[in-house]
Design a protein that fits this description.
Largest sheet: 2 strands, antiparallel
Oligomer: single chain
Helix content: 55-70%
Distance between the termini: 11 Å
Number of helices: 4
Number of strands: 4
Order of helices and strands: EEHHEHHE
Number of domains: 1
Length: about 90
Amino acid sequence: MKVRTERKETTMASDSRIEKFQMAELAGLRTELLQSGMDSWQAAELVTTFLSGRGYGADPAMVREAVVRLEANACNFECMQRELEGVAYVM
C-alpha cells in the first residue's frame, strides 16, 4: 500500500503500520473473484471497490495488472495481501 506524503510516495511495505486485511474479507473477495465469471476489467473494479470501502485508493491500471497476477497464480491469502499492499494507497 502506498502512503502519499509531501511530493513523495512511499510504500507501506517499508512501514510497520501495514494493515492486514481480515482473513474473512480476503476469503470473501477471493471467492467472489473465482466464482463470479468476471472479466479482468470487472474483477479490477471489484478489487478497487473492496479497497475504497476500507479507505484506500488505487490506480485502476495497477489494479488490473494485480488482478491478472492473482488469476495467473491462483493466489492464496498471503499472495492476495501482498498484491493489495502493492496497489493500495491511503486516501
